[in-house]
Specification:
homotetramer; about 210 residues; mainly alpha; 9 helices
């Protein structure tokens, strides 16, 4: 029986496209205040009142950006992809391309009393879905050593998976936090994203000699 | 006389762009409930009422994703492209980039009585057009063995075309089903898409030794 | 003095991105009829009344698609690019990315009496700008033989420029036609696009042995 | 300890995507006049009244285009990227993808009395943020010679940084000018962009023998 495997070039190109579009579409939700709002309270004040939209924009941009950086880091270790990898990647892209929707929702309802809890919970659930999709992609990629480059260390790979699990527990906790305080929930998502930025051993990175050293 | 043939790199890059944008634009049709709707019935309930939009989003995402996976699989077999291939591919991209429109239409009218039939028929007709464009692209690609890699088996290629035909008969049937029940029609499109995901011998794939075996 | 020249890879990637987005954004102008319109006249009839939007969509899709095919054909002959090429290409992309605006305008005003003439003239002027940008790009590319592949024939290159000139005279004529009949103008743009599809010696293609012969 | 470095291919592909989308999304803010406006004053006149939108569109297109050209020029000198480069690049992309928002804001308020000053200041502040992000990216790239190609001259690199500084002083000055005259501010941004087009020794370009000479 034959098996179909392919280089990862087009998967990366398609994924880069979806990441780039999702991250850039976020700007469509920054709304220019109407002439009437500006006439009543001045444009500067009307813009200032939209801070939930800017905050949600910033956090979602950061999150998509970091997913991209880590996607990049993961596929730097990958030599070949097969159909299960294509579909696991598609599931991740589904969540990524969805992110502008909960972002818009949270921007609109961040200061809206009890509805803010619902909006924050939808946002947090999206992030949990993203974390689960990421862990699944990693599982599918590491199920077959032939898909990875030779210098990938299987032990580090198992360790990375455990750290994914920890991340998902945090995302699950933010769903609970949503029902306490929506703004705090968004701040925690920002903190989680920044934590992933500065992480010295990123979840998805295996021990590996750099080409220049 | 000279003939113009080119590598398939830019065709793939351009197609990946159109696929990625079409699949990501779908999110623009997930509408945040208005403050008034949320005030009347609560945000959670207002969001729940939008299930046709989520359902249509999910099915269309799956369909575009699978067209992309199969486009990827097809062009993995292609060595060179000429002008007829560029235009056959453009016809496929026309249908793909159109998909957000019938998706929006069906999301709006899925539960709207007799208008739901019209919306579902437009959606199904778009999928039929996609199937026909795909079969045409395959015909144009396989009309000249020089365009394909050497290891492509012409017999498997003819077989694949026959299976395209079967797929298009199914799409034609969904137009009929649209006038019976719109929601069932969308569910059948989901099932067809999932069938193509798990198909062990995808329509467009020829018998071929994998590079790693 | 040093001169900066670069490979054409990223110019092509960036251009493919702009082409792909402009061609896909066109779908945002296909408007789903409101519930009220559908209630008054039935969804099928309400959709039918939007034929100017479908017609404008189709013609603009075809035009952007063909510009892309020809852009592809041109850069297949190019070995290196310098800053003037980057900016001449940017001017072409400016017009391409603008096309969704006159398309939307013409879709809205195609049947609107005397305003239809204004809308058609804006559409035609955009196509003239596109033709002029294309000719300029070709001039900038062919001003220095070192930028092109060695097998490019300078005589065919001059001939191609003359044919660009003819194309632009046609586009100029459509501006005049706009003030007679807007629908006929759009039909002529469709015909011009189809003419460029089937042209056996495309304007921008030089005599050249194909790699496979 | 191992260090992670990667080729710059995917960073460029992702950045090209964001640039291409941000530059093409600008067209969504060119609004087709309503039927009522056209009926009252004629379509041609209604279109003419939208000149602030066309002006802002043109300047922002030019600015994003030139950032892209210079981004291209910078990464033509880069051999490898590491995580700090990925994040410095992400900060630049954040500003680039934001540009459609201040463009829309300025298009709406360019002729709106005292609110025009606020809109112009937001626009100018965005350009300052872009200039600072660019300088930061350059600093992060040049902090480690191993990331750059061997023929890059460190002295020219320091000189380039000084010229970045000058550019940012100009952007800072446009924030002040915003409170004098919004239209003049936009004109100065156009002039700055054109200056960067024609600059014979672009800020970011190092002395280097061209491959063809």
């Amino acid at each position: 029986m034959t098996r179909r495997v392919m280089g990862s070039g087009r998967l990366e190109a398609f994924s880069d496209g979806v990441f780039a579009i999702a991250i850039t579409l976020l700007v469509l939700d920054l709304v220019v205040p109407s002439r009437q709002e500006a006439a009543e309270q001045g444009l500067a004040h009307a813009l200032g009142q939209e801070w939930p939209a800017y905050f949600a924009y910033l956090v979602s941009f950061l999150i998509i950006g970091i997913i991209w950086v880590n996607h990049h880091t993961v596929f730097d270790k990958v030599r070949l992809v097969d159909r299960p990898v294509l579909f696991a990647n598609l599931a991740l892209l589904l969540v990524v391309s969805l992110i502008p929707f909960p972002t818009r929702l949270l921007a609109e309802y961040l200061t809206a009393g009890s509805d803010s809890h619902v909006a924050a919970a939808v946002y947090s659930a999206t992030m949990l879905a993203m974390g689960l999709a990421y862990a699944t992609l990693w599982l599918v990629l590491t199920r077959d050593a032939k898909l990875l480059h030779e210098d990938v260390d299987p032990r580090a790979s198992r360790l990375a998976l455990r750290r994914f699990g920890v991340g998902n527990v945090f995302y699950l906790a933010t769903i609970g936090l949503s029902f306490v305080n929506a703004t705090a929930t968004l701040a925690v998502h920002a903190a989680l994203a920044i934590y992933y930025c500065f992480d010295q051993l990123p979840l998805v990175t295996l021990a590996r000699k750099a080409p220049t050293e």
